[in-house]
Amino acid sequence: MPASTSLRAVRRAVAPWTGYFLASTANSGTVSSLVDLKHPVRSSNFQEDMLIGKWLLRPDSTANDRVRLVAENGYVPLQGTLQPDSDWSAVPLAGEVYEIHGGIEPWDDLNGLVNTALMRCYVVAEFPVDAEYQATRHGLNLAAPWLQEAAHVRRLGYLYPWESRNRYDPYVRPFFWEAVDDEGKVYVEHGPRTFDQAETIFVQAIKPAYFSCRTTAGGAFGERSGLAADTHEAPVATEWLAAATLVEYWDRIAGQLPEDDKQARQALDRQTRWAAVFDTLTAKYLHLPARNNPLRTLVVGLSTRY
Question: Which of these, 113, 201, 246, 292, has the minimum number of CB atoms within 10 Å of its CB?
Fold first, then answer.
């Protein structure tokens, strides 16, 4: 089964590397408190200042209730009670999941980094293009508006009208083609080869995973762009997207500090280490199809396009 991850899974994978993190469930609550009777929130230790000022996230609540800070003097370890810095409109229910974050605002900021990181992770996508009669080139962006770089096109093929994609491989008939960038759009040039208007061109390209997400586990990848709710999923492994997110996170931290600052150098060092992890995982999860324009090398060597 192809790898996939949810927004909740990747956020929880990233958060421990950014600062304090705890994921738990409430036992009860009021509009001004959340009670968790489980360790480490409930404790007889003198740790009243451990959670003060940290982000308190209720990911399954409405937008107005989702994010708070633990209020000053708002943590009572002996009772397992957390008080938000402003009241909620809805009471935390028994069994409701919540999270405490100490490094980064966990919804708008962290989820924003996750979605930016989705542009670093690629999946292989196939899409059909209706052939234009006697044309020697075809634009690809009507069928694939997410395709912005010609270098991302990997294979080109075609099927006759009587051939089913489920029974025939469109990429087994070699012909010259070249993908080109043209004022922000991508075209494939394939002259002198032309097609009948009843034929269908098939294209395989790499696609940023951001454009290939789904709303629920039972949905179809590609039905939405990006992750906006905890149930939304991306077609990539959790560890891969987490590493990409941490590259973005440490890049942001470094960018907020003077270049000669010790903490900035430490942030850049951590970014470099996570970039190496990301590169390793990219090699593990992204399997590029070989380009199938075998005549290109000969054509280039002869210094002529066709």
Answer: 292
pLDDT tens digit string along 150-170?
A: 999 999 999 999 999 999 999
Are residues 87 and 127 both part of a single domain?
no
Count the Cβ atoms, other than its own, within 10 Å of residue 51.
21
CATH classification at residue 82? 2.40.10
Name the nearest CA neighbour of 250 among 263, 235, 241, 237: 263
Residue-wise pLDDT for 93-108, tens only, equals 999 999 999 999 999 9
Total domains present in the chain: 2
Which tens digits make up the pLDDT trace of 73-97?
999 999 999 999 999 999 999 999 9
Q: Residue 139 belongs to what domain range?
A: 122-211
Question: Is 128 inside a domain boundary?
Answer: yes
Amino acid occupying residue 20: Y
pTM of the model: 0.91
